[in-house]
Amino acid sequence: MKRFVDIPSLAFCLLAFIAVASASETTPKPGPCCTILSQAGLGDRLLYPQESDYEARIGSYWSAGARLTPHCIIQPVTAAEVSRAVAALVADTVCKFAVRSGGAMVWPGANNIEDGVTIDLGNMNSTTYYANNNTARILPGARWQSVYKTLDAFGVVVPGGRVGHVGVGGLVTGGGISFLAARTGMVCDSVVNYEVVLANGEIVNANKETNSDLFKALKGGSLNFGIVTYFDMEAVASPRIWAGMTVYSEEDGDQVIDSISDFNHKMEKDPSSSSTTYWQYGHPSKQTVIVSALVNTEGVEAGPIYDSFKKISPILSSQRMTNMSDIASELTQPEGYHQMWFALSFKNDKRVMKKAVDIHSELVEEFKALTPDGDFYTMWVLQPILPLYAKHSAAKGGNVLGLDRVKDNIILWLGALGVKGAETEAIAREKMIRWTADLEQYAVSLGVNNEWVYLNYADPTQDPLRGYGVENIEFIRATAKKYDPEGVFQTRATGGFKISNVKKQDLGHTKDEL
After folding, report:
1. Do residues 191 and 172 touch, judged by C-beta distance below 8 A?
2. Residues 6+ apart with CB under 8 A from 8
3. Which uninterrupted H or E stretch holds 329?
4. Residue 198: CB partners within 8 Å, gap ≥ 6?
5. What angle is formed at CA 403 by the lines to CA 397 and CA 495, rounded to 5 degrees?
6. Is 240 left (phi over 0), alpha (psi -120 to 50) or beta?
7. What pLDDT sits at residue 284?
8. Residues 263-319: pLDDT tens digits?
9. For 52-79, what is each residue's pLDDT tens digit?
10. What torsion do the CA atoms of 56, 57, 63, 64 make, to the nearest 10 degrees?
11. Fewer CB in a 10 Å sphere around the end CB: N or C, the chain?
């Protein structure tokens, strides 16, 4: 008897099989590392691919390029659960993991992972103020917006991020710049105690008296030692501040640069004031404007330090008396783009600032041609960094950032570009590398370049730790070896800038002073 074969049905089944097989190849599967976490009693903290909560967490990364797809996400709520997760992943496995606090770091792999587990600290997000010693205990998954809102009720603030959606953990371990920097130093300098989960799962405290070497190394040392599960930070009184955004025409660029330079020279005499100025092209306006965030953290309105800025007629201004949570909510950046950030620093030289603006104009015109709908955005940021910051650090026990080597007032430059689509990102990254190199080489040709690179702005093609100086580099290396002798945070934990990547033979050209 002949067998009857239904060719159309068979073809349909074959196509369905191929579709399912193809989907299974592209959809991340829960791997053995996730099973290990479940067996460690953490199953109810795990999120898996195709679950709505998993998709929501991946979609909440600020940069679209950072939206990788780990085998699973674990969301601990206590240090003990972080400890259990790390111990389980490290023991007798080859499991790799990433650590996320707020998810604002832009480059792929900074706070997420493709083949491994993402430890998502987003549910560890509380802030508690202790009036008896004027400190705030802040968990790493908190966003600065929520930190400031909590502290507003007490009339205090801690030095922290200037953009509200940025997470606490990454910003502090990278050093951190705040509106209070000239008064209190870098953000990390206001930390008085860290609670840290080490690679073996041990939970330790690091402060001036206990694990003092780890305490110092964590101040700018990135993800080289362990996972910080809370920060105790000194607060300062902050009933009201004068703050806002002032927008200028692109045609006023030369006057704005003059104002930035003038402000930089005067800032040490008025440490309560700060300025952060950027050239921005944005969609849908499709035009470049200049924006200055002008802030006085003691509530002095439009002090003399801003006289040069006041000579320029703004398009609009939101300057007002307010509080830190309010200004942090105003300083937002577009979401949904593939983001690229690059950083440099140089002496307070107007020629380099003007060169940066020229490069920005070139970038805008080139990307108008590359993206006919104009759907991209830029932020070309110029802001002062002073030796005064390092003096505050030294008074508080020091950090490893190496700013004590900077003897002149300098300008920190951030070049940020956001585009749509992974293919455009690949093109854009190569162009950003070239533009950054061009600006650096111009500063070198004038003898005003500075090798210090702010870690939280740096691209992975850059080497911010090298700019910390040989002494700090070797201190970080020794501390990492002491607290993580197996090198877990060098080889198994992605993200951050690894001290093991700073080669000793490359340090001969590092200057003692900058």
Report:
1. yes
2. none
3. helix 324-330
4. 86, 204, 225, 226, 483, 484
5. 90
6. beta
7. 83
8. 999 999 999 999 999 999 998 889 999 999 999 999 999 999 999 999 999 999 999
9. 999 999 999 999 999 999 999 999 999 9
10. -50
11. N
Domains of the chain: 8-120 (3.30.43.10), 242-325+335-466 (3.40.462.20)
CA–CA separation, 347 and 370 (whole Å): 33
Confidence of residue 352 (pLDDT cuts 50, 70, 90): very high
What gap in Å lies between CA 411 and CA 264, rounded to an integer? 8
The crossing angle, in degrees rounded to 10, of helices 422-445 and 350-370 is: 160
Residue 223 C-alpha from the chain's centroid: 12
Number of H helices, E strands in the chain: 16, 20
440-479 confidence digits (pLDDT tens): 999 999 999 999 999 999 999 999 999 999 999 999 999 9
CA distance linking residue 263 with residue 305, whole number of Å: 6
- Token match 């080859």: residue? 94
CB 475 within 8 A of CB 400: yes
pTM of the model: 0.92
What are all long-range contacts of 136-139, with beta carbons under 8 Å and residues at least 24 apart? 136/232, 136/233, 136/235, 137/230, 137/231, 137/232, 138/168, 138/230, 138/231, 138/232, 138/233, 139/168, 139/229, 139/230
Task: Measure the CA–CA gap between 369 and 302, rounded to whole angstroms.
Answer: 41
